[in-house]
TrEMBL record:
Residues 12-81 form the Halobacterial output domain. This is Halobacterial output domain-containing protein. It comes from Natronococcus pandeyae. It comes from the Archaea. Pfam families: HalOD1 (PF18545). InterPro entries: HalOD1.
Amino acid sequence: MCSNHQTRIEPSEEPSHAIITTVAALANVPADELPPLYDSVDPDALDALFRSSSDRSDLQLSFSYFEHDVTVHREGEIVVTAVNRDASVTCMQSTDER
């Protein structure tokens, strides 16, 4: 099974923190039990890239983290898809209105 979850980065929140908390919630594990995010992406570079004053509205970054595919969009949307890579999957979509 896979599920597609969309959330937005709060203005005071770092993108890396939003990714960790979202994946932890979807995986139903405490955030401190997840592997380090830097095993998948440099969190400082990720935060700097999406907090810069760039006008690049087409910017997005995708990577895999803890059996989830993560895409961060410039406008602050994060899409996290939990993936079972061993089976055919059907995705269901949910939206988080934080």
